[in-house]
Amino acid sequence: MYDYTIVGAGIVGLSVAHAILKHEPNASVAIIEKERKVASHQTGNNSGVIHSGIYYRPGSFKARFAREGNQSMVEFCEEHGIDYDQCGKVIVATNQSQVPALKKLYERGQENELEVHWMEKEEVLEREPHVNAVAAVEVPSTGIVDYKQVSEKLASLSQEKGADLFLNEEVVSINERQGVTIETNNRTIETRIMINCAGLHSDRVAEMTGYKLDMQIVPFRGEYYELKDSAKHLVKDLIYPVPNPDFPFLGVHFTRMIDGGVEAGPNAVLGFKREGYTKTDISFRDLSQVLKSFGFWKLASANMKEGLAEMKRSFSKKAFLTSLQEIIPEIQEDDLVPAPAGVRAQAMRSNGELVDDFYIVAGRHSFHVCNAPSPAATSALQIGEEVFRQMSEKELKV
User: Fold this and answer.
1) Percent of the chain whose predicted confidence (pLDDT) is above 90
2) How many H helices and E strands in the chain?
3) Cα of 140 vs its chain's centroid, Å
4) At residue 186, does pLDDT exceed 70?
5) What Pfam families does UniProt report for this protein, alphabetically (predicted)?
6) E-only strand ranges, the chain
7) Boundaries of CATH 3.30.9 in the chain?
8) Given 3-state DSSP classes, what are the helix, strand and coil percentages for the chain, each rounded to the nearest 5?
9) Dist. CA 382–CA 16, nearest whole Å
10) DSSP string, 101-142
C-alpha cells in the first residue's frame, strides 16, 4: 500500500509529488499517468510563459501563487540547469480608448505587489520597435521556459527519492473507504491518500471517487500561428494586448519561446474533445456533456460577440491576421505558419459561471485539484505546497 498516489503526471501532479517528498521524505508515493510520457497535455502544449500574476484578483490563489510561483520556478530552473529567460513583457494599449483599462491593470499590478512600469509611446518603441502602442505596462518578472523540461526534472527527482511512476496506466475505477483502491487498465493500487491532478479529466476522477461537484470541465482549444524566421525580428520578447475584462481569455498576443521561435495567439474556441488538438478531433461523449449543460448555453449567450469573433479567427487566417496587425501592423499573412494547438481545461459551474480561481476539494481520503488553468504551470510548485498544507490542516496525511 502506498501512502500517497497522484493521478496525473502533468506539472501540477508532479509538483504535488515533489512537495510531499520534500516534507515527508520517507513517504511511499505513486504517480499514475495514462499517457506514455509525462506532461502530455496542458503542460506540454503551451507557449511556456512564466507569468507574473498581474491580471488576477488581489488576494486570490492565482494572484499569490503566480507571484510566488514565478520566483520559485526561476529558482528551480537555476538550481537544476534548465534554460529560462526572465525577459519581461509589455501589455500595450493600441488606441486611447484602451488607456483607462491599461491604467487599471497597472494599479492591479501594484496591488499584487509586482514591479510594474508605465511606459509612454516613445519608451514602448524603444523596447518593441514594431509595435503599435500609445502606452504600455511593462512587467519585468515575466519569463519563458520549457515546462516539459521542468516536468521531466520533477519526475526524475521524485523517482530518485523513491516514487513509482506508472505510465500507460488509465484509471478505470476508484473506491474510497478506509483508504483508496484505484483500478487501472493494468493493475490495482491501494493507497492511504489519493490526490487527483487529472487536469482535463479532474471532474470525472472526482465523480469516480464519489464526489458530485457543481462544476464540469469545458475544453477550450487555443490555436496558434508561428512567425517565419524572416519575421521573427518584429517581436523582441512578449507583447500582450489590453484584455477584455468581460471575456475570460487574454486575447491574441506574441510570445518569444525559449527555443527561439515566436508564437502568435492563441485563439480560443470550444474544443469538441477534451484532448482535441485539431478542428476535426471530436468526442461525442465530451461534446454532448457540454452541449447538454444549461450553464454552457448561458455562458455562450453572455459572450456571444467575443465567441463569434474567436470562431471567425479559427476558420479565417485573414481574420486572425487582422487581430495581430492591431498590435504589429507590419505582420503579413505570409509571415504566419500554423503551429500546434493547446487545450485549456476550464471549470464551469452549472449556472454558467467560469471558476475564476484554482479550485481544490478535500474528500475523506482524497484531494482533488479540480480547476488549474493558466497560470497553473507557473504556479505549480506553489500549488504542490498548498495541497500539502491543506492536507496537513485537515490531517489528511500519513
Assistant:
1) 88
2) 11, 19
3) 20
4) yes
5) DAO (PF01266)
6) 2-7, 29-32, 49-50, 84-85, 89-93, 117-120, 135-139, 143-145, 164-166, 171-176, 180-184, 188-196, 216-227, 238-241, 253-256, 262-270, 336-348, 359-362, 366-371
7) 219-350
8) 35, 25, 35
9) 9
10) HHHHHHHHHHHTT---EEEEHHHHHHHSTT---SEEEEETT-
Q: pLDDT tens digits for 296-325?
A: 999 888 888 888 888 889 999 999 999 999
Q: What is 2-44+148-215+356-393's CATH number?
A: 3.50.50.60
- Buried b / exposed e over 66-100, threshold 16 CB at 10 Å, is bbbbbebbbebbeeeebebbbebbbbbbbeeebee
What b/e readout covers 243-263, taking b as 16+ CB neighbours within 10 angstroms?
Answer: beeebbbbbbbbbbbbeeebb
Residue matched to cell numbers 490542516: 393
Q: Which amino acid is at 326?
A: E
Domain limits, CATH 3.50.50.60, in the chain: 2-44+148-215+356-393
- Tell me the torsion sign for CA atoms 22, 28, 32, 38: positive
Give the contacts of 375 (CB within 8 A, at least 6 positions apart): 49, 51, 53, 56, 62, 65, 66, 69
Residue 46 has pLDDT above 60, yes or no: yes
Task: Give the amino acid at 48.
Answer: G
| C-alpha cell of residue 263 | 508564437
What's the CATH fold of domain 219-350?
A: D-Amino Acid Oxidase; Chain A, domain 2 (3.30.9)
| Contact predicate 249/323, CB 8 Å | no
pLDDT in tens, 268-302: 899 999 999 999 999 999 999 999 999 999 988 88
The x, y and z cell numbers of residue 50, run together, are: 512564466
Beta bridge pairs of residue 338: 225
Task: Please say whether the dihedral angle defined by the alpha carbons of residues 233, 236, 238 and 242, taken in this order, is positive or negative.
Answer: negative
The x, y and z cell numbers of residue 232, run together, are 521573427
Please enumerate in sequence order all residues whose Cβ is within 8 A of that of 33, keeping only pairs 6 or more positions apart, or say none. 8, 9, 13, 40, 165, 166, 167, 168, 169
**For residue 184, what is its C-alpha cell?**
487501472
**What nine digits make up the cell of 386?**
498548498
Q: Confidence band (pLDDT; 50, 70, 90) for 250?
A: confident
Grid cell in block for residue 358: 484554482
